[in-house]
Amino acid sequence: KRDVPIVKCNLVLNGKVLSVSSKNKYLEEVDLKILEEAICNKVNHEMNLYLNKISKDFNSDINGFYGYLKRNYKSYNEMNNIDWNESFKKAKFIVNTQILLTSNHLFPKY
To answer: Is 55 exposed, middle or buried (0-12, 13-18, 19+ CB in 10 A)?
Structure first.
């Protein structure tokens, strides 16, 4: 029995670059990869702040992680032995973000 639940969040995002600055008419693949990495880092950071805020400051599972937790228990009685509201306050979060960016402004390769 774990005292500290580990909540894993996998986020898969798709995005599109709609415009570029006037001095850069085109993007290269490497530019998109740099942008994807920066967005992933920012989303991971913000999601960790958010999840820690709701669990530690608000003491509330407003996202319904408890519903997913139920799958990990073999019986109803085993699941009911957990005080999820109390456990959620101590939860550790692992956020993994993947993003795929596309753009119509990629530098054409000939």
So the answer is: buried
